[in-house]
Amino acid sequence: MSDRPAEAPVGPEPDAARHEHRVHLLNEMLRIRRFEERCVELYSREEIRGFLHLGIGEEACAVGVMEALTPEDAVVATYREHGHALARGLSMRETMAELQGKMEGCSRGRGGSMHLFDATRRFFGGNAIVAGGLPLAVGLALADHLQGRQRVTACFFGDGAVAEGEFHEAMNLAALWHLPVLFCCENNLYAMGTALRYTESETDLSLKASSYRIPSWEVDGMDVDAVEETARDAARAVREGGGPHFVEMRTYRFRSHSMYDPDRYRDKAEIAQWREKDPLTTLTARLSAEGLGDADVARLEAQVAAEVDDAVAFAEAGTDEPVEELERFVTSERTSERTAP
Ligand SMILES: Cc1ncc(C[n+]2csc(CCOP(=O)(O)OP(=O)(O)O)c2C)c(N)n1
Ligand SMILES: [Mg+2]
């Protein structure tokens, strides 16, 4: 979706409006799922290169949280951020072009999969360093705080980030200075091939937030309705001056860590169990009970397939950066103008 409406008014919505809203949520998750499935194909043909981390299975986290934000809020994400970028309103075209290293990409083809970025939509990456986004989020929130702007900075990170010093420094400063950060932890139980229980003495991540006096919630990250509701409550509290809040979303990635990972550390039965909680299947079942028919789902699928096809065609027709431009932006052009004699 390109233009995100401001946060919806509080209070019960009429059933029809609620249904329509959920169809929108399903559509957003479908867009992400089908986009990433196409990325797998393109990767095997080497049309996408480098690292590629897919969020298949985790779509409800990005989509649910994004619903709680306004266009003025900020988003900071990790290297598993295709879904976050699309849900935030980056177009599929500029996202796919970026993955293919084309100049038409949102980061001019220089970032690739891990560095999707769009300041106009206040989407501040795409960060490849585990926990590296947290201090950035604290800085963005500090700027809003000092300027008296009622904005939220939503910061996504994985369970692996809690082992990093930056996580603790960011949580501490955000709490100490009462900054408007919504910490969104996507706990998919693994950091690359290592299960959380092998690296953390305390695996209840919400307790880490409590130790910094940050209010925290846990939510089923496979249920987009639940994520949205929790994120709305948390974002409202942050926006109203309640300081940082922490939401732990319990989720699972259905595929390997990255395209290079043979995924030998997870039990097949565990993966199968989580696949039964597929957020798209759950929501589709709920919508079917409310009257959404197979033909409606087929129509959504067809629209999404057309959007993906269009994005791939756009990217494939895109431009490779000329070799003579490669040194541009390595240092700031504006700074060198200012310091020129
Ligand atoms: C500071 C740092 N250390 C190590 C790595 C290598 N690395 C890349 S992803 C990753 C796992 C992170 O897991 P998690 O935070 O749970 O996110 P997930 O991949 O599960 O979404 C690691 C260790 C890195 N990118 N940055
Ligand atoms: Mg993880």
Write up what this structure looks like.
- The termini are far apart.
- A hairpin with a 2-residue loop joins β4 and β5 (194-195).
- This protein has one domain: Rossmann fold.
- The protein has helices at 15-44, 59-66, 82-88, 92-99, 133-147, 165-176, 205-211, 224-242, 268-275, 279-289, 294-316, 333-339; strands at residues 74-76, 153-158, 181-187, 190-191, 194-195, 216-220, 245-250.
- Mean pLDDT is 94; it is low at 1-5.
- With 341 residues, it is of the alpha/beta class.
- The chain contains 12 helices and 7 strands.
- α5 (133-147) packs parallel to α6 (165-176).
- The longest helix has 30 residues, at 15-44.
- It has a 5-stranded parallel beta sheet, sandwiched between helices. A two-stranded antiparallel ribbon has the order 4-5.
- The chain binds thiamine diphosphate (TPP) and magnesium ion.
- Magnesium ion binds at residues 158-160, 188, 190-191.
CATH superfamily: Thiamin diphosphate (ThDP)-binding fold, Pyr/PP domains
| CATH-derived architecture | 3-Layer(aba) Sandwich
Q: Determine the N-to-C terminus distance.
A: 47 Å
User: What is the overall silhouette?
Assistant: globular
Q: Please bin the fraction of helical residues.
A: 40-55%
